[in-house]
UniProtKB/TrEMBL annotation:
Keywords: Aminotransferase, Pyridoxal phosphate, Transferase. The keyword Glycosyltransferase does not apply. SUPFAM superfamilies: PLP-dependent transferases. Its cofactor is pyridoxal 5'-phosphate. InterPro entries: Aminotransferase_I/II_large, Class-I_PLP-dep_aminotransf, PyrdxlP-dep_Trfase, PyrdxlP-dep_Trfase_major, PyrdxlP-dep_Trfase_small. It holds the Pfam family Aminotran_1_2. This is PLP-dependent aminotransferase family protein.
Amino acid sequence: MTPLRHTLNHHVMAVGESPIRRLFEIAADPSIISFAGGHPAPELFDVDGLAAAYAHVFATDGPRAMQYGSTDGEPEMREAAARRLQEANVPASAAEVMVTSGSQQGLGLVAQALFNPGDVVLVENPTYMSALQAFAVQGVELKALDGDEAGLVPEALAAAIEMWNPKAVYLIPTFQNPTGISMPASRRQQIADVLADSDVWLIEDDPYAELRFTDDVLTPISADPRLDDRSLLLGSLSKVLSPGVRVGWIRCPDEEARERIGVTKQATALQTSTVDQLAAAHYLATHNMEEVLAPVRAEYQARMLTLVEELSQVLPAGSVMNQPAGGMFVWARLPVGFDTQALVFEAAQAGVLYVPGPPFYVADPDPRTLRFSFVSNGVERTREGVRRLAAVLGTESTLAQSA
Ligand SMILES: Cc1ncc(COP(=O)(O)O)c(C=O)c1O
């Protein structure tokens, strides 16, 4: 008798593991200088402040903190998220906010609640890999949108909506991962105009906005009230407080969608950790985040400037790279003939890591692109990392001349 074959979900089987995860294993070797992961600098975490917040919660509300809580989130954390959104010029009430375990869970829940297999989802090209994974496990078809140095091109969005009849568009308008690009206000307005004329959901991912190096606060596209029945804005404390705490949120003004996302969350996770939410909410209520973030922004900016300055001396002639106004990433393109996926193994052997660009693309991957995180290494280590990279690129002599 032929044994019965057990099978797994074929959409899940078709999704590749994020190649960055594998690089993390190499990056765990302390002798390697890694520009790969998008990890906040651990030495800048407010460990004492957060420990005090947890201690306060256990001392004043211990049994509640240790109990099951509501699926939508603890009222204090929903209030805190709504306040943060209002500070970013987004009208929001606690009732419109659902707390999530990081924005990655938000992406997964939104994908489950919105998508049927075969639905088309438009994405920037390149874009954040784990969002692609969250969407792909639902069996959607991903279509690439054209962008330029100011981000997504509104005409390209309009044409893609016309051509593909998509269910949703996924955007990271501020300090995009991986390109570091921020869409200017005029472009956001044009994109809102296109979406207001459509029935397409906007999934707007905004984890980096507060890591800005200027006073320019860029309002999320979802703030446009015309999009209230079709916008989902995801936020997170991961990049500004701690990714280990795992607290994020979804702002969803549409009641039916919010309710369905809630059902999806109940089915997958019941709730977000009660104690983590209460501690995070207490921290936010007792700290001025502008003051908390000022030294972090200053240090990240110094690290970014060092990385850009050093890279400009060692990237081969004909390379291009951006100088981001915030966030965590510098994105570069090497001249014709380079293959960053092949080169990364040589780089690892030389003791330095970056992330090759191709896996961030859903179409026409550019083998010459690569992403550097500038936040994880101090200025000296950044210099040493770029020196190691120069050896791999064969440009050490340029460095020697400029020294
Ligand atoms: C664009 C983007 N969205 C979402 C996330 C997930 O963040 P978290 O789940 O820690 O909030 C990341 C993490 O790197 C990201 O870069």
